[in-house]
Amino acid sequence: MLSIGSKIPSFALYDTNLELKKTKDFLAKGKKTILAFYPGAFTGVCTKEMCAFRDMHDELQKLDATVVGISVDPPFANKAFAEKHGLTFALLSDFKRDAIKKYGVVWKDLGGMKGYDGANRAIFVADGSGKLVYKWVGENPGKYPDFEAIKKAL
Asked: Partners of 91 in the beta sheet?
């Protein structure tokens, strides 16, 4: 279980351009990083959440923060999702489900599909050195995060 003040787990995941991105690629910039785990591209709550982050872009820049979306969707679905909704931040594919396990956000049998493990909706905010400064994990994948609490943590 990750606790505030601990180092966030590292990952190496593909982005929408099939480029392997590592945790350090985001932290190396010295910015605060919002890791937003989401269950699935093109679903109602996920679309609303990712578009909210898109709409907060200028505000997040002023807070010296960047967003990274992570789901188990393949890079191709994430790319179509980003293009359709004008998402300019990184969307990473955890198709092997390594990151959701490391972060403790596996949702078993997502959507009632036996054997399909997806990401629960969760937010982890790391400072520029990779220390966890905020953590929220939804009670279920349909739960929407508190954006004011995220901004306050930044």
From this structure: 69
Is the entire prediction scored with pTM above 0.90? yes
Q: Which 8-state DSSP code applies to residue 7?
A: B
Residue type, 71: S
Name the active-site residue from 46, 72, 77, 150.
46
Q: Is 152 exposed, middle or buried (0-12, 13-18, 19+ CB in 10 A)?
A: exposed
Separation in Å, CA 63 to CA 46, 90, 136, 153:
23, 18, 19, 10
Both tokens assigned to 20: 């392997």
- Angle, alpha carbons 69-72-73 (nearest 5°): 85
Q: How many CB atoms lie within 10 A of CB 9?
A: 17
φ and ψ at 70, to 5 degrees? -135, 125
> Of 102, 107, 136, which Cα lies nearest the Cα of 34?
136
Question: How far is it, in rounded angstroms, from Cα 53 to Cα 49?
Answer: 6
Domains contained in the chain, CATH given? 12-153 (3.40.30.10)
82-135 pLDDT tens trace: 999 999 999 999 999 999 999 999 988 777 879 778 899 999 999 988 999 999
Q: Can 46 be counted among the known catalytic residues?
A: yes
